[in-house]
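Annex B. Sample input.
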Amino acid sequence: MTRPDVLVVGDANPDLLLTGDAVPRFGQAETLVESADLVLGGSAAIVACGLARLGVPTALAATVGDDLYGEFVRGALADRGVDVRWLRTDASVPTGLSVVLSVGDRAILTHPGTIATSGPEIVDDDLVTRVGHVHSASCFLQPRLAPHLPRLLAAAREGGATTSVDTNWDPSGRWDGALPLLEQADVLMPNAQELRALTGRPDLDEAARVALGLGCRVALKDGADGGTLWDAPDVVRRVPAPAVTAVDTTGAGDSFDAGFISGMLDGLSGEECLTRAVRCGSLSTRGVGGTAAQPTLPEVRDGFRAAPPTWDNG
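Annex B, continued. Sample output.
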């Protein structure tokens, strides 16, 4: 049995993506939206698909229910080349579901379902020590699993793997309990709001220094402005985003994660990983949903040459 190069641990669910005039009006008022698409969602699932699209053998450890949504998730992942041998089915809990209201900005309504009930049983401890990289996504949505993640990432590192974390948003607003996980991460991949909330520091440079003090680099995704990498307190690297006609930004940050991890596995430098990540995130916005327009490695390499990094040292 062949083993994957990357294990992604986290969430997998369908997204019902509504675009156009997707702001609800209460009082039994009916609003007609422009489009409605059922697409693969969940940060971990989208990262896994992005890595597979880049040619990286990738497995996903997550849980779905024994229902139509679970079948949809399992089929979509397999169709995109993700190894689903570690995708569990829990017949007692429905598959999680997110409704994404996209009106330029986005609002997300999520029924956690199997996302919240996933625990340490989804992770094969032996596999963690035999892959080249382990990525943790959406820890705040997984209260049963979250306390075990630092141990799992530590085991991966002891086995010679690199590790990364994208906590994503904390719906509770507490933002507690993540620091032990960051201590076991080689790279933290937040957006600006998440980095500020995780560290309690409104200034991004100060926030990045907090993370660096825990031992992890910070690869910040900054939407249309590209990305920023803090390798050390006095070394900051910035990459602008290439010009892309965006159709939908859902999952762009997860494709950014996939690009950065792919670069790490290819032995690229920090700025090269960031450039690949920004390119992956930007190109993924060309289609509806997080996975429809994820780029191949040749597409990324074309963008690699077109978007050299800029430097800010000190």
